[in-house]
Amino acid sequence: MWLELELDRLSLSARRPQRPLPWPTAEEVETVRELGFVDPVTVRSIPTTRPTRYEIVSGEKQWLAAQQAGLPKIAAFVRDGLEDEEVQRLLSLPTEKAPSNPIQEARALQHQVQQGLSVTRAGARRGYSRSVASHLLRLLRLEPTVQQWIAEGTLSVGQTKVLVGLEPKRQLHLARRIRHERLTVRQVEALMRQIRRDPRDPTMIAFDADPRDPDHARFEDRLSEQLGVPVTLEYARAGSGRLILAFNDLEILDGLLERLGYRDDAD
User: Fold this and answer.
1) Which DSSP letter does residue 98 get?
2) In whole angstroms, how far apart are CA 78 and each of 40, 43, 64?
3) Which residue of 9, 68, 103, 189 has the lowest C-beta tally within 10 Å?
4) Which spans in 92-213 are helix H?
5) How confident is the model at residue 95 (pLDDT cuts 50, 70, 90)?
6) SS3 for 153?
7) Helix crossing, 102-114 with 130-138: angle to 10°?
């Protein structure tokens, strides 16, 4: 069965071997961004989740490239007939040599900056925009164990980037919780909003995996799909609120402004 699935409804399989993720190169991400799609992935549904979520059986690199390119959805072939042992065998097959992981890239950028290059020039040498290079460098402010989990592929950049700025002990506690509960990027962001409102130990705060009411969630998801960027709606009981449109770099912002009908008459 073929489906088009939102990226945050997919996750790495719990049966995946502990090895680095096959991170796409900057050139590959740029190609995906220009084309607007990636090759399909193969998945298996996780029946205990609502709405249904899926574990990736093959195509991890396509999923990662779609995330970095800002795609809202990815084509997926669902194979629910696979047994656990078959999934394990598929995930254990040899893969192409993985390119540098985000932590390695961040350290390479840091080395170039320490040699006197600006963040913009160091990023350009490795095929990154200034925004992407800055985000990578921020990862080096994470607690060392959290950095190791990113390098191993057990945590993603999206899951951990919101932890930057917290004290190391709190970073580690939250990262352990993210791994244990297998939270998606959207769920991590929702948890962080709860933590900012609640001064208690973050490991003790009860958290609903999807705290949004169905109508709220449906509106955010449909608008995210139409605009091509993550959308968050926050509102108070009095009716006031704000609509947050997130973007990873200036190219995505330009595309978003174009969809919204913005024109710079000064050009």
Assistant:
1) P
2) 10, 5, 18
3) 189
4) 102-114, 119-125, 130-138, 144-152, 157-160, 168-181, 185-197
5) low
6) coil
7) 100
The pair of three-digit structure tokens given for residue 149, joined into one six-digit string:
């989990």
Written as six digits, the tokens of 95 are 């893969």
What is the per-residue pLDDT across 170-189, written as a single tens digit (0 to 9) for each?
A: 899 999 988 888 787 778 88
Query: CA 145 to CA 183: how far, in whole Å?
Result: 18
Q: At what angle do helices 214-227 and 250-259 cross, to 10 degrees?
A: 100
Distance between CA atoms of 119 and 106, rounded to whole angstroms? 11
Q: Determine the Cα–Cα distance for residues 113 and 119; give it in Å rounded to an integer.
A: 6
Q: What is the rounded distance in angstroms from the CA atom of residue 190 to the CA atom of residue 232?
A: 10
| Residue that is written with structure tokens 């929702």 in the block | 190
Is the previous residue joined to 51 through a cis bond, with omega within 30 degrees of 0?
Answer: yes
Cα 226 from Cα 235, distance rounded (Å): 21
| pTM higher than the cut 0.90 | no
For residue 11, what are its two tokens? Answer: 């996750």
Name residue, tokens 């926050």: 234
- pLDDT grade, residue 143 (50/70/90)? very high
CA distance 226 to 204: 37
Residues 22 and 61: beta-carbon distance below 8 Å:
yes
What are the tokens at 131? 């925004």
* DSSP per-residue string spanning 107-120: HHHHHHHHTT--HH
For 76-80, 177-181, 206-210, 225-229, which range has the lowest pLDDT when averaged over its residues?
206-210
- How many residues are given for the chain? 267
